[in-house]
Design brief:
Length: 249
């Protein structure tokens, strides 16, 4: 075995240009399918920024200074610290694949420090405010009852909007007092979790079961046979209550 094989040194060939390798990275991630479509779209935007910034710089010629200058550009564009960190993560992912492919030994992005992200203290959403929101929704729209079912479910279960919309009644385990969230890979990390009923969640699901209009989806779309897929569809089609909710402090 040669020293090059033992130490896993880069091959003695010219390293790819970053902009070309960045496109290869994006194509690879889509082909692997390990990330959600929304995650891939967001990451692709950041990777293509780096492709425009580093252009034809070869992978082994990328320096920490060039990366830092790119982040300064992003800050000058008005991006928030958290978004700048995500932009850096996207670059690190590309360089990580370059290491795996044998083009780099170490990542030039490693020394870069993260942006400090200010922590926001979000006010708790009280039961009284939840009741007021639902009362407002019932006055404003015929979809008010469905909207209230949805919002109360989010509050009682801790589920995200995208996780709750595809839920079906088959996900509810009445015998064990549990509901499975993300059985179809709809969670942020694409892993399901089981949530035990608390008194509010159990009572709310029981109430929903009593007045449901069909036996498949918890939150049906106006289009028969489908669950709601976005905030523009029933049961979250009401805009004014959402604006009212966001204004609560």
């Amino acid at each position: 075995m040669t020293r090059r094989e033992e130490e896993q040194l880069p091959l003695m060939t010219q390293a790819p240009k970053f902009d070309e390798y960045a496109e290869k990275y994006i194509e690879t991630q889509y082909a692997l399918g390990r990330k959600t479509l929304e995650t891939l779209k967001g990451e692709s935007r950041h990777v293509r920024f780096w492709a425009g910034h580093l252009r034809s710089t070869r992978l082994n010629r990328i320096t920490t200074t060039k990366i830092r200058n790119g982040l300064i550009r992003r800050k000058g564009d008005g991006l928030a610290p958290r978004t700048i960190n995500i932009c850096l993560i996207s670059l690190r992912n590309v360089l990580k694949m370059a290491i795996q492919d044998g083009w780099l030994k170490v990542s030039p992005a490693t020394p870069i420090e993260w942006q400090k992200v200010p922590r926001k203290k979000w006010p708790l959403f009280s039961s009284r405010q939840l009741d007021e929101l639902c009362e407002s929704a019932l006055r404003i729209s015929a979809n008010g009852p469905l909207f209230c079912d949805f919002v109360r479910f989010l509050c009682y279960s801790g589920a995200r909007v995208g996780e709750a919309l595809p839920l079906s009644w088959a996900d509810v385990d009445w015998k064990n007092g549990q509901i499975t969230i993300g059985a179809g890979g709809d969670t942020k990390n694409r892993e399901f979790r089981v949530v035990d009923f608390n008194p509010s969640l159990g009572a709310h699901l029981e109430s929903m079961r009593e007045h449901r209009t069909q036996d498949l989806w918890l939150f049906p779309s106006a289009q028969r046979g489908h669950h709601a897929s976005c905030l523009r569809e029933s049961p979250t089609r009401i805009q004014r209550p959402i604006i009212w909710l966001m204004s609560l402090k």
